[in-house]
Model the fold of this input.
Amino acid sequence: MRARLGYLGFAALVVGVIVTPFLSTHFRTYQFAFVGIYLTALLGLNILTGYTGQISLGHGAFMGMGAYVTTILVVDHGWNDLLTVPVAGVVAGAGGLAFGLPATRFAGPYLALATFAIPLSFIGVLKRFPHFTGGTLGKQLPSLHSELGLHTNPSVWMYWVSWIVALVMFVAAWLIVRGRFGRALRSVRDSEIAATASGVSTAGIKTLAFGISAFFCGIAGGLFAIAVTFVNPDTFPIDLSILLLVGIVLGGAGSLGGMVFGALFVEFIRITWGPTLLDLFSSVHHVNTRAAGSSLVVYGVVLLLVLFIAPAGAAGLARRIVTGRPAVPAWAKPGATPTEEQA
Amino acid sequence: MTGLADGSIYASLALALVLIYKATEVINFAQGEMAMFTTYIAYALYTHPHFGQTLGYWPMFFMTLVIAFVFGVGLQRVVIRPLEHASVLTVVMATIALLVILNGLAAWIWSPELKFFPSPFPTSTWVVGGVHISKQDTGTFLVTLGCVFVLWLFFRFTKLGLAMRAGAVNPGAARLLGVRTSWLLALGWGFAAVLGAVSGMMSAPAVFLSPSMMQAVLIFAFAGAILGGLESPVGAVAGGLGIGILLSMLGTYVHAVTPELRLPVALLILLVVLLVKPAGLFGRVVVRRV
Done:
């Protein structure tokens, strides 16, 4: 029953993806292209956070790494931009593995604070080696254009590229989390002690999950660079990493379908929904909500509200409507990360 | 001396992290932003015509510590306590939400531009045997470590301090003996906020006041806490000081390490410590029964 619902949902997603560009303006289509890019990144982060139970505040930087790989290969080495995307994924994935190897020795929340250092360090490294990365000014990519002999509008082209990649990655994520490996991931999340007792190498699984999630984010980052045609250190601030995490929680950690909603949220909170909420607020309280920082407050409040009211996110709400049962995600259940002292 | 002054700031923030960690097994991501926010409150007090401008620096300093304490306790009661029975991950997420909210609020209320923050110490130097010693760095070092020392006295010699230690070691048994552990956790948050306020007010004159000023300091403090061992308050202080001195020496003697590379270097130290000695220099090795 659940599996069939999943297939139905995926079919609905594919139909939605095919229909959307015919119903939208070019500008909207361009925005939806970013939804596809964020979906790829969220699917990856979800493998780490939703399925393995490790919080990362650094995956914006892995997107940045992918974006810089694409940019440097296209601008300085004359590669075709689509060919750089897998390379971007592999380099970011390798970076994730390299970081995960020592960092996943941490249990639970430790890892999160170590990952907090990644985006901050990443920006420092970019600025330190300007001849390679373009420094503070960044680098400019060629303007967006259709390839493969097609003559579609560049926005529509970008939309198809990002969504074909996103759907492929969706299936890849599904294959990763469904089988034996997926069970190992979930066992680490639910009880590290029980996982170890069952012969699962918790550090190894966490490192792999870290690498895989960084790979997804690297792919997303490469596409991101092609779509915005410009990268500099400020393109990938710590806010992006936090926003990705908010997207995961809001969509429903540990649910693949929920990530679609999370990606929609990440793209549209910045441009449409956030300002609308703030307008509503400012009309009541007469404060200037156009100022810097106000959008961050909105993300934070949304995250807190979700944690308090619907810890299973949008996916949990949807499941509740379909099955009539309230859903508490496994990662939010009390005792999901047992402490050493309980023995 | 600059290394020692920076190090003492990292040490106090590292100690704040360890305080909350030991009591609740939660790493408080908002620690740095709480420090930043209380420093903005100090700034507001200082620039207030009837308060800071007439009374001077030190009344403002202690007033801020009181406000920080109330602020820390309040945050714990309002945001963290309702999640008492949720998983550690949920609580960590909530502290991340706090981080974002405080950062946004500070930019919203006071604008994100850099602001000048006063230092109570003169910028002149003493010359001892041909070596210049900055009065500002010395003052920062003494004030920060003084606060840490007062806190140690409290934990070591008062009944409340004993109760807090008991609550951290074994909450269940402490509760059976009549210790109100839930309020002690709030108290722990209060002390952590006070330590944060001290580190914020001491670092703001050097790095200027801005909403993101404590993000890097938090990483340095965390690296210090890891170096010393997250379980050990003494280790946190020693580790924080060590990181400060190390970074200052590297900046002076190794030319490849420019200011931009301070954070990556701290991250590297953190990862190396994890690989070589995961329990830190002062931590005990946790043996997990499987």
Observations:
- The longest helix of chain A spans residues 258-285.
- The beta strands of chain A are 139-140, 230-231.
